[in-house]
Amino acid sequence: MTSPVCRSCWTELTETFCDLGLSPMANSYVAPENTDRGEIFYPLHAYVCSECLLVQLGEFETPEEIFSDYAYFSSYSSSWLEHARTYVEQVTRRFDIDSSTRVMEIASNDGYLLQYFARNDVPVLGIEPAANVAEVARANGIDTLVEFFGTKLAEKLVDEGRQADHLIGNNVLAHVPDLNDFVAGMKLLLAPDGRITMEFPHLLQLIAHSQFDTIYHEHFSYFSLHSVTQVFARHGLRLFDVDEVSTHGGSLRIYACHDDSDRYAPSEHLEALARRESESGLDQLDGYRGFARSVERTKRELLSFLISARERNERVMAYGAPAKGNTLLNYCGVGRDLIDCTVDRNPHKQGRYLPGTRLPIEDPAFIATAKPDYVLILPWNLRDEIVEDLAFIREWGGQFVTPVPHLEIFRPAAVDQ
């Protein structure tokens, strides 16, 4: 078998970061009429490049197959909407964004973020490959192209006289198999004095908090500040600032510009985080070894809890149908023998089944009817929002369970009268 090569620097990949066995595509929810059909399971094996230290998976499905009809709609999370609104306020103040600023977002989803710019009469353009998701944005008045982004589309837009003064990409960089073409496209599309902001889960947090469930086939790459700086520099882009944000268990928001621009000076935050990553060993290969042991510990903890609960005749239901939950359940070998079902607010997922484990996806209202003893929160990054929404489970003594970074069982807080 030929070893894969790094999608950033083309070095042969020989160093394992984490091997999660075989798993189906994490967002390939099974329709009821297909439950008697088989699923394809692919290796979920993450490598770390010995040269540029980019953590990554091999490519088994094309982006067209994965993202052209997508089940994720950003606007179903109230906390994510608030995150987007706050971001728009911050960058509008910082960069004096107004009606003369051309704002574009790559992977703009259902217009969850661009809507806040549009309300301020800022001209916006969304680029979203999933036609079903883009249609929602268009219906809400957000100009959206149904396209995959790369140099070809960037050249087309530039030829039409459209460049971005402010270019955004939230949780898209990890989803790109042709990383060099994508970053080169941003370089082309960015106006001479423009800037880029991109958000993605921070590899430092993934390692520190055993967030292995954020590894799935739709996420091709896992970035540290160290590795993303090299990728951008290779294409003539310079990072000038970084924010650490709480989303997705701890993410980075990087700020970049053309490397020959003197408009943006490097921040102290950028230098401080680079030092902290070095202190954690992320600038050398040894810093990535040993992660697999913490993954195995999390698996044992979850299985021990679920088996014990079943032996006590206690019912466990899950909350959410996120991709991370599918990685967790498939890696741990959990099925309906241990968890009754899951629930999700997204009506596009309700009535379907989780890939691999085939847990049925119900409406969240089912929890009040079923009255489970435990609710296992799969999107643990939305823990506070979910606990608040489901505080009523305390009426029958129900408890919450979170599996990452370690198993935690807790009761909802009492509500003040």
TrEMBL record:
Pfam families xref list: Methyltransf_13, Methyltransf_14, Methyltransf_23
Biological process annotations from GO: methylation
UniProt-listed Enzyme Commission number(s): 2.1.1.-
Domain of life: Bacteria
Record-linked InterPro entries: Methyltransf_Zn-bd_dom_put, Methyltransf_Zn-bd_dom_put_sf, MeTrfase_14, SAM-dependent_MTases_sf
Annotated ranges, domain C-methyltransferase: 247-405
One MF annotation (Gene Ontology) recorded for this entry: methyltransferase activity
Annotated keywords: Methyltransferase, Transferase
Transferase as UniProt keyword: yes
The Methyltransferase putative zinc binding domain, residue ranges: 6-67
Name assigned to this protein: Class I SAM-dependent methyltransferase
Organism of origin: Gordonia sesuvii
